[in-house]
Amino acid sequence: MAAYSCGNAAWQTLQAARRYRWGMDIVLSHITALEAMRKPYFPSRLARAGLCPTELPCQMPVIGEAREVLSICPQLEGASTPLHVLVGGSCHRHASPAVIPHTCVAALPPGSLVELMPGVRCSSPALLCVQMAPYLTASELTLLLSEMLGTYAVSVTADRGVEQRRAPLLTRAGLEAYLERLGRFKGVAIVREALGGVPERAASPMEAKLFIRATRRFASGGYRLERVALNDPVRLEALSGEVGQLRVRKPDLLLLAPEDAAAAARFRGVAFDYYGDWHTKPEQVKRDTKRANEFLAHDFKDYVLWKENYDDIDYMDGVMAKARRDIGLPERKVSFRRARAEREARVALWKELEGIDGIHWSGF
């Protein structure tokens, strides 16, 4: 067996011994790796990714190994089957009801794999994005990247369909640095191109989808708002209590008035907040009202969007037009033909995003 390409030599020897003891050397990838990294304890494994060996097994796991790894690896609880695995060569690749093999003959840089348990590794979030990119539509890839750069994980068991993370699995700078190290690897160029339209620190898929609709080009179904920030802290003076007491508020989307439009702006900025059912609870209604008043008192206009508003194209058109006016952007005047084409694009984008649940992917 060739020497591992990264990490401390003693640690590598220990890991090799542990894998031998368990009798497995499996690298999970694609959908299976994504399911593993959505588990709450994955970030603790990710912290050691830089030490994880990157050499790939030369053959697929047999059916018995696939069943065993599902039964003993807590990070794979509820994982879908067959398992997606990464192998270092195609000579031992074959059809199997238990696993779907993906071949990688290129050398992987440090940080490409994460150890889940002795004998079981998986793709890192950065490698996963590159692996998945060729199989996904542009919007699917944007939402996958939004999750990796966001503070949520899609879940089939959580009440709201997501689990919250303390911090993103990836940063934009970290992903860009990894892409540079990966070199001319299939999928790298696709991820690089997609990154420009990806939000950072989204707290839910709906926030990410709202960002996409707000920032995409008009011809692509968006409203082309620029410099939109997600969950950026805004310090506002409290309306009660001691003078000068500040509160930190984080609107879902925040858009500041451009400096060159300050004279025409009616507000310092506008915010967009997407409200789910839990905002109807009496105590939450009171908190939301206090928050909205603080924004208004400090010259920020906060637009609240419920699902029925988000789904209403005409309503969204009206809100976005008023938001442009609020921050001093000029009213758009286009021909009837162009207006009709852009509206059709907005409907198409809304439908496309509604069809992406983060569980099912078009290329698999």
Query: From N to C, what is the helix and strand string?
Result: HEHHHEEEEHHEEHHHEEEEEHEHHH
- Into which percent range does the helicity of residues fall? 25-40%
Secondary-structure-based class equals: alpha/beta
Mean pLDDT: 89
The count of strands amounts to 13
Major sheet: 4 strands, mixed
Q: What is the tally of helical segments? A: 13
Strand order of the largest sheet: 8-11-12-13
Beginning-to-end CA distance, first to last residue: 33 Å
Write the layout of secondary structure elements.
Elements: H1 9-22, E1 26-28, H2 30-37, H3 42-46, H4 63-72, E2 83-87, E3 99-103, E4 113-117, E5 120-123, H5 125-132, H6 138-148, E6 152-154, E7 162-164, H7 172-182, H8 188-195, H9 205-215, E8 229-230, E9 234-237, E10 246-249, E11 253-256, E12 269-274, H10 282-297, E13 300-305, H11 307-310, H12 313-326, H13 336-354
Parallel strand pairs: 1-5, 2-3, 12-13
Antiparallel strand pairs: 4-5, 6-7, 8-11, 9-10, 11-12
Helix pairs in contact: 2-5, 5-6, 6-9
What does this structure look like?
With 364 residues, the protein is an alpha/beta fold. Helix content is 38%, strand content 15%. Helix 6 crosses helix 9. The two termini are 33 Å apart.
